[in-house]
Specification:
There is one protein chain. This protein is of the alpha/beta class. It has a domain of 157 residues: Rossmann fold (3-Layer(aba) Sandwich). The protein contains 11 helices and 7 strands. The chain has a 7-stranded mixed beta sheet with strand order 4-3-2-1-5-6-7. Strand 6, helix 7 and strand 7 form a beta-alpha-beta unit. Helix 4 crosses helix 10, helix 9 crosses helix 10 and helix 10 crosses helix 11. The longest helix is centred in the last third of the chain and has 26 residues. The protein is globular.
Amino acid sequence: MTWKCAVVNIPLGGGKGGVICDPKDMTQAELERLSRGYMQAIGRYIGPEIDVPAPDVYTNPQIMAWMADEFSKIRGYYAPGVITGKPIAIGGSEGRGDATARGARYTIREAAKHLGLKLENATVAVQGFGNAGSNAARLMAEDGCKIVGISDVGGAFHSESGIDVAKAIEYVAENGTLAGFDTVSDCEELTPAEKVLELDVDILIPAALEGQITEKNVHNIKARMVAECANGPTTPAADKVLTEKGIFVIPDFLCNAGGVTVSYFEQVQGNMNFYWPAEEVDERLGHIMKKAFWAVLETAEKYNVNNRTGAYVVAVGRVAEAMKLRGWV
């Protein structure tokens, strides 16, 4: 998170925290008690100007709302800037829901310009069909791409003629997963599901969990571009092979930084008690993501390294400079 914030040049540090559980096996009442209990445990250490939590895997606006409310009980006043990813009605930001995917979309657009790849009819495979993956598929389809592969825990599905993303999103909303999607759509199921990563596409978007592209399958990756919408989807060994194969990688902490960027916007809006329209949020996000992409690419080319190393050079360099200016080193 530190490098993610630094690479897009927003004034935040970074950290991670969570609860080991499976929320899918919990009732709403249990999930609310868990959310409030977590805030009771960390509430004394956070605030609108320090350690502002944001949503991640298996969280949603309702969970963030419970946490924000619990913090208000602890402090005795409502501080909307204390947590992000909240519903709009209680101080959330427009555009936060699909911010991770929108940020990825901006980096993919810039990468396509660099590669001379026309997005119109470009083929795309998306692994993971949760918030990031489903929205990434939807947004890339809006850009004219043909989504030929999708997957989630329920299975992977492929269609050379293109998958109806809106129908897939509606199906998951009704059924919980993509399992059985081939029975209602003109597509075939891929087994094992990991084969979605190996489809012959222009753009591969891993948007599931970490460690998906490994030494075992990296040699079968055929995509021209890998846009890492998930955190850590590629192992270090596999990353080296992708570089050797000449596959253009948009590293995770650049590609998926749209989420934390709009969380930063939400923190700012909450502290100002003044909220921006969705168009302004998207415009500001686009400006930041495009600038970050070209800073990383130019650095990678300058030092003749891959994009991930270039991103680290940019991010670590910014943190090091700040530390020196403050007199820490």
